[in-house]
What we know:
Shape: globular
Strand order of the largest sheet: 3-2-1-4-5-6-18-19
Number of strands: 19
Strand content: 15-25%
Largest sheet: 8 strands, mixed
Bound molecules: nicotinamide-adenine-dinucleotide
Number of helices: 12
Distance between the termini: 42 Å
Structural class: alpha/beta
Amino acid sequence: MAVQVGVVKETAAGERRVALTPDAVPRLRDAGVEVMVESGAGASAWFPDEDYAQAGAGIVDTDTLYTRAEVVLCVNQAPLQRLREGQAVIGLLAPLLNPALMSELAGRGITAISLDGLPRTLSRAQGMDALTSQSNIAGYKAALVAADTFERFFPLLITAAGTSKPASVLVLGAGVAGLQALGTARRLGAIVRAYDVRPQSKGEVESLGAQFIELASVEAGAGEGGYARALTPEEQAAQAAELAEHIAKHDVVITTAQVPGRRPPLMVTADTVKSMRAGSVIVDMAASDLGGNVEISQPGETIVTNNGVTVIGAGDLPARMPTSASNAYARNISALLLHLLADGELRIDLDDEIQRGVVITHGGSVVQETTAKLLEGAS
Ligand code: NAD
């Protein structure tokens, strides 16, 4: 019998993405998967129920979905409370930020599979890399949000009414999102500089036509797996102090710095924001309930300071471009699902390198090493 896969309607506030789009349905059906979609699941990303039905999916109500699905596909963790024993869920579950929730799922007999555990340097896993696809979208959107909020031109413009200088944009954190943000800001005509604690990013920044800023106060900060390491509080303070001089000279600052499983590093203090010129714009892509890269940013909110700086808490940018974000995510999650199937069934195999990264709970235990270690440390 075909494995039954259910696509839920996301319930988190502001979440407009959907885990599977209609164009991904035929490929799954060809592999022996029966797809059911909770009615209205794709509506906020502009994928109506009829498009799913035409592609061969069944449209069902919420109770039917959670009762019948063997594998539930989602974007973030909101649906986890409704799952039942024996079900599997695939999504961006942020296990390192919520290890206790993972332990609870294990106790309830649920197999939790999280796309953010994917070993990203494996080339056969690249089609499944949802962190990259969503960061790309977020970086692009960050530059557009900044340009739209900044009340001057981004490019150099010479007209009969005078000349306008190009905007100067500083991108802090030059990973996937930062590089996309700087490329997009460059295409809009801004002069762009960027900084990252990983020295390897210098070449990538320069190849996109931006200038790399080097800081004297911080040692190179490359960690494991291509990610940055967490800086000590002293290093972070020195970094923020040295960055302050650069930030004050820019019109727009886009911050993207993250360290996996940690609070985002604080890079722009409240005092630094006070030193910026009126009309400047900061987009903090790391803004979250844990805090962001900017001391005064608030997730999902736009603040205008007394000195006229607009600070946008923008940790949710992929959800603000839900059609492209869902299309890309659907390709990633389908590729992972197909990788997990053998003879038409979900086959968990922790000897497989991809599965060892993404399978967080199975058989009643937390099986993913990093999450299990965090739980051991907490007990
Ligand atoms: P991320 O979202 O974890 O962090 C964003 C950026 O913030 C990173 O570049 C990081 O170095 C930087 N950062 C963290 N703390 C900082 C600090 N205190 N100061 C300045 N910058 C700081 O990273 P990401 O965008 O997911 O990418 C991480 C790495 O993974 C990169 O090296 C990227 O090239 C690599 N990657 C490789 C593949 C692949 O090989 N297929 C795919 C995706 C990403």
